């Protein structure tokens, strides 16, 4: 009896015995108290009818459990038609959730999220391409769970953070424009694509750098099957934790960012509630450049629940010295060091950042993620595999992080063919109808 009683109870710090159920209840109440208030607004002006957005504030890690709730905000900028943007809006979230094992606690769920986002983006691209349609879309996909923000993106839609209390405006995405991204140009060329400008009569070259065939100026997107598999759907992913000061996210298509810098967008709406702020950013972009493209903006304010819903305060005129190093590009081995610095100044803690286009790097290995992978399930499409069917994501890859290429995670034959085509090892087997 004494042993059973000990299993049902834990000692309080004072030495007194406290029922385990009471401790669990206290932890649940603390988590609820610590969850931020989320306020948002959205505004848009249409030119081509190819911009779409997604707002979900009723998602749950555990179905039917409101204490496991999280929010999703996304902007999708379609091109060559709207089919890819619509399909991605309607299916990406379910594909991401399907790549996360059931039964995980919140911290494990958040740790599994970056890899699930990669799998979800690739599966969405693969499933859409089966339709034989040639449209494509950028995606900026934001998941907010408590104070933790996870952003995944392909293309040139963008998400920025205007941190409260610090006056620091930081990019949470990386643009995948060939004109601006040298690493992506080199990757596309190495995978079999040709990068160059549009040639006109007389041999003159005009416009931004594009990938040929197809003429797309982006190196990553969902769809675009007529361009080539070297235009990959593997997202840049960044995960951060706000340290209770809160902040404002501005998520927008390139109709905004071609007109406004990040500082201009944040400054144009500072002092306004989220709904009015989104309208103001769109208004400022139209005033600056006119309506030359679809223009969509979502503003999300994340604040403490015991605070009023005031937006981020005006930026002080004095230049903040932290701005020179917060969220600057860094080598992987400096993540922990930078996170400690950010924690020390009380603005944000960086939890994860990765932008490689290689699935062997992004899907990791099962020995380092035992609880986030099923050896009998395809790591991308979640198809069940017999023990002899799966092909390791590391097999034959020079980008593998595993010293044992026979280890998982594993891919089905179809997803392995997709991976090989993305890396330029074989032409895509998908044909345009």
Automatic annotation (TrEMBL):
Keywords: Hydrolase, Magnesium, Manganese, Metal-binding, Protein phosphatase. Transmembrane segments: none annotated. Pfam families: PP2C (PF00481). PROSITE patterns: PPM_2 (PS51746). It comes from the Eukaryota. Gene3D superfamilies: PPM-type phosphatase domain. Residues 56-302 form the PPM-type phosphatase domain. It catalyses: O-phospho-L-threonyl-[protein] + H2O = L-threonyl-[protein] + phosphate; O-phospho-L-seryl-[protein] + H2O = L-seryl-[protein] + phosphate. InterPro entries: PP2C (IPR015655), PPM-type-like_dom_sf (IPR036457), PPM-type_phosphatase-like_dom (IPR001932). The keyword Magnesium applies. It is an enzyme of class 3 (hydrolase). Its cofactor is Mn(2+); Mg(2+). Its EC number is 3.1.3.16. Coiled coil: none annotated. GO terms for molecular function: metal ion binding; protein serine/threonine phosphatase activity. Belongs to the PP2C family. This is protein-serine/threonine phosphatase. It comes from Ensete ventricosum.
